[in-house]
Specification:
Elements lengths: L7 E8 L4 H14 L5 E2 L13 E7 L4 H11 L4 E7 L3 H6 L3 E3 L13
Antiparallel strand pairs: 1-3, 1-4, 2-3, 4-5
Length: 114
Amino acid sequence: MNIDQIADWHAHVYFDQDTVPDARALRALIEERFIGRMEMGRFHERPIGPHPRWSYQVAFQPDRFADIVPWLTLNRGGLTVLVHPNTGDALADHRDRAIWLGESLPLDLSILTR
């Protein structure tokens, strides 16, 4: 597979009821630092899609990977972040091509096979 097949990347920041303040603080830092270089998704206070915890998404182009992912690695605090490419194969992107920052969590992959 060629890296040109990566349309963009998603980073999903996971949190729960106890870590909402941490998640909101990280989101504010992301928005401030990377304004215009990424798109922020909605703040979901429930599991959505294949994601087992509450989350929000940070979408960015491949040329931003080297800026955003190392920064998230160092600044995520205790939050877990799932990073994956979007190649058109959602199942493989979430299952086989995932990068976990922090704890690796089981995803509900059945949603991606429907």
